[in-house]
Specification:
This protein has 250 residues and is of the alpha/beta class. It is 26% helix and 20% strand. Strands 2-1-5-3-4 form a five-stranded mixed beta sheet, covered by helices on one side. A four-stranded parallel beta sheet has the order 7-6-8-9, sandwiched between helices. It is elongated.
Length: 250
């Protein structure tokens, strides 16, 4: 005798619908199951990473990811609220991390450099695999940014986000908005190449490494404390500063 399938009804709100096929967005979806599972499993079976879910309501009550679904349950999943905060009792994920730090997948090299430009600690490497990303995110308490849903479905990842945009500058604006980073921006304090911190250094200490025209024109310099790269406020810096001002204003 084959067990009759059970049914639950699921509704995703706001940007969680980005993960659904267009014909399934903004509507109640039916899910059939035989063996009981958790609401986390049900949500992720639709392709929605648990890291983007902030609140789950089942039959009118808030529940954790570990809630075991029952036939007939009506499930509503919400993303992080931008206009107001929800109480700790209702939240399904840990509160924001003490330090805003990121780890990025292989497809997001330019975004990593731009986050560093804004002063954020952003780990990136071509050799990082899916499980490597998950390990770094978990062990170092970093927000995982990726273009692949797979790593976001690991339970060890508590903070993560699937990047929607394809253009790197739009990606930066997307991340700044998603994590409300405007007040935390400290531009030009971190090396865009290696993620090290920048420190002011006297011109005479780096003159031997500078092109003659740079040594003649500029007096203020910074050097990366990790890789030794030297920075000065040339035309590139001025363009980037204007972009940062626009980004913060937006």
């Amino acid at each position: 005798m084959v067990d009759s399938p059970n049914r639950v009804y699921v509704r995703f709100y706001a940007e969680l619908n980005d993960h659904l096929p267009r014909d399934q967005r903004q509507m109640v979806l039916e899910k059939l199951f035989v063996a009981p599972g958790t609401v986390k499993d049900i949500i992720e079976s639709f392709g929605v990473p648990h890291t983007e879910v902030e609140l789950i309501i089942v039959n009118g009550d808030s529940v954790p990811f570990s809630y075991v679904v029952r036939s007939g349950d009506r499930i509503a999943a919400y993303p992080m609220f931008e206009s107001f905060d929800i109480t700790e009792e209702l939240r399904v994920r840990p509160q924001v991390l003490r330090e805003i730090k990121f780890v990025l997948d292989v497809h997001l090299g330019k975004l990593a450099a731009y986050l560093r430009m804004l002063g954020f600690d952003a780990v990136y490497g071509n050799e990082l695999s899916g499980t490597g990303l998950v390990r770094i995110s978990s062990e170092q308490h970093r927000i995982l940014l990726t273009r692949d849903r797979g790593p976001l479905k690991y339970s060890a990842v508590t903070h993560g986000y699937l990047i929607r945009e394809t253009d790197s500058r739009r990606q930066l604006a997307e991340v700044v908005a998603r994590f409300d980073l405007r007040r935390s921006i400290q531009p030009f304090t971190r090396c865009m190449a290696c993620n090290g911190s920048l420190a002011e250094i006297a011109k005479e200490q780096v003159r031997m490494f500078l092109p003659p025209r740079v040594a003649e024109k500029f007096d203020e310099f910074q050097r990366c404390t990790l890789c030794g790269r030297i920075y000065w406020r040339g035309s590139h810096y001025l363009r980037m500063r204007r972009w940062v001002s626009e980004l913060v204003g937006r």
